[in-house]
Predict the structure.
Amino acid sequence: MLDRVAERVAAGSDPRFEAFVNGKRSYEAAVAEVGRQFHDLTPADFERARHDTRLDDARRQFENAVELSERANAIVDAATARYQLGLVHHLRGEHEAAREALVGALRVFAALPDVEMSKPASDCHYHLGVLALHEHRLADAVRQLQRARLIDNALSDLSGASLSEQAMARCIAEGGNADAPAPWDAELFGRWESAIVQEATPDALDTTDQSDRKRGPIAYNQREVVLLASHTVEANDAVEEQLETLGDEMGRPVVISRVAFAAARPELRRLPEPEPDQHVCAAVLVLEREGLDDAAFQQFGFACIQQVMMRADFRLLVYLYDVDLHELRAIADENAFVAELFDTTQVAEHPAGDVLRRSLVPFIRRVERVAAAERWRNARLRATSGLSSVIGIVFRVAVILAVAGYPMLRWFPDVVRAVPFAAKLAAFNTGMLAFALQAPLLFLLVRGPRAGLSASQGNRALGRYLLLCGIAMFGANATQQAVDGPGSWIWLGLGAGLVLDTVRRAGWNARRQLLDLGDLQKEATDEAHGDRSRTIDDGEPHNPFTCPFLPAPAPRIFISYSRSSEQAAGLATALFQDLTRAGSTPFLDRASIPVGASWRRALNQHLGECDAFVCILDAKSLQRPWVGAEVLAALAARRLTGTPDILLLLDPSVDATQPPVLPLFRGICEAFHEAPIPGRPRIVPLGSETRRVTSWALAPGRFQPMAVLTRLSAVPVWMALTVLAPIGGLGFLAGFILGPIALLQGTTQPFVSWLQGKGWLGWGLVLVTFWVGSMARHTVAIWAGERQPAPEFGALVPAISVVGLFWMAQLLALRAEALWLGWALVVGVAGWWVVGVGMRVSTEGVAAPRT
């Protein structure tokens, strides 16, 4: 009923909706007079329908709706109109036209990442099966009807499953074999290679680091050394000549330490030892055909590979002297050294002297900041993970107090009331648990009843949680009412619960970011991963308990593929470009990792932060342990935090039953032939519409990252952050005003007394602690290399401001009441968090919703 009202409202404002609604009315009026299902239609029914003018009108309206929807890039609307057009042709007995329209719609519906959109795909399969039944192509009819029935059963669509069963019974009666295997018809989805348009430009795939383009001298505390290694002296001389031209641009002393392993002079075959104040920051490997099998050169190369994996402040640049990238790819399977280079570091597609300039110069100018940022990132992740564990214990203790508090009050009232601050503690505990326990319920509420019901189906953890939540909240409320807990402490508990639960969730995300791809690569070939219960079927379908509270400002999409497959690489590049234009933040290794940087470190970081994981699985990808490691990392991350959404694009034509296909992918291919399950990784067939539908569905406004709040419900939070961010920025100035006042004790005491007399002491304490948290996060970000200091402030000014604000905060805290002290702690942590979120927004941007 509501759907029809929505259609009529939309029809009054949009010509394509108007055409669709008019066509649907004409079609429904005609089909109502038929009085039977499609699988029971007779030639006489087809003949009558061909002379029905209402179906002529419906066909014209649906064709118009398809054209207008395609023009507006409304892919799903166009597919829906095309499906309805297929029904019109089916009813008229125009089988070829009906099949063409239905297949076009199915290619879109089957490629959608959202499992909830699988119902239209089931309808397409049903009608394609009935068309095959009418044409007595029984094997094809069985395959299509089996697929329709699988999807209907998975979505608990009883009417759809009943129709499929009736059509299957008709098929069996005519001689069809319902027990025959029903593999995917690869041709049904079209050739996915045809959707790859080579439109890459140098700018789109520029992998060099563009973060520092300044020139002139810079401050430094160590001398940098660049290692230059080759097989022959001639190649070494040629590259050294190019490196020497970069000296003035680097802005600091840089020593080039040379070694040529085939040199005639022994001293040229050894690297000199660096001096105590020198730091080796990079190595340039000059690859020559005759040197690829040089044992000494390989040993040096492997040592550099170990350094680039262990150190963030070390780059390994590969210079192709007399070989090209195609030659290296061809020998990678036989040459372990070359294969390790591809798996470890970023190799430029077209290496030249300009690549050295664009890669090496910015890195050397900021090498200290790179190392500091990496140390801070590791420390922050581990500290957040540990703090999250402590907060988890706090919440468990709070739940125990809530559950046991009321019975204790009933049995031992005098003992409970004798506990100091019992009323305030009970009220605070109630408020703290109110948010932490009900956040998963908020997750279901903001997604609407249909999505909430889908998320709760088969989720045993959610059912147990609802029972625990009801008991704990009843106990907490009953206890605080019995001891007459003050309402102000409930509000304080609510604020503390919001902050603590946000930090707890951040800790789970930190554990996700600490996953190591190197360890998972070793597991990728394990036969145990052929068991789907350990991979794609492991864990609960939805995890609202540890997912982030806020969605990402713009969807972060990780694109996984095998670099040895030119077709997969082409599709990955096309997806990267489409998603970038749509406003998302995609990650593609050779487009996002600076030349010379560690693949593994970069992949670890971006896999740990992405909201959606897209993996292209063609015949070559199914054999690659590195692709398997990326899939395992995404699955492990999803078990930890409920993110990322996993989309596996599988070529339906591959034979995955035999080695060298990895066991992990054999299990995935087995699941591919079964019905999709809401909340599980989505496996879709690669086809001619895959690129277009995937980039459309993952655009901002359509893709909903896994978080407690949706993008729409998070709008008030983002608006609040836009107000709080400039208030926190005032802390720079406030620190220099309040700091001296705080240091002058004679002036401070009258100032604090004046605030207390006006009743502003508590509010002043809260504001100052918010500034302390904001400025502390700013200072850490600058000193840790996360962001550049403002030229007019430098790196020291924010730290001085923090000291002044902290000194004032502790003076105000000495006279503040316990309630205001609690709010000061909560708001101080909030100030730290606001700046962290603001830095992420400034880096990624808030993408505009797409319609």
Q: What stands out?
A: The chain has five domains: 2-192, 223-365, 372-512, 520-697, 715-844. Residues 440 and 544 are 5 Å apart (CA to CA). The longest strand covers residues 278-287. The first helix runs from residue 2 to 11.
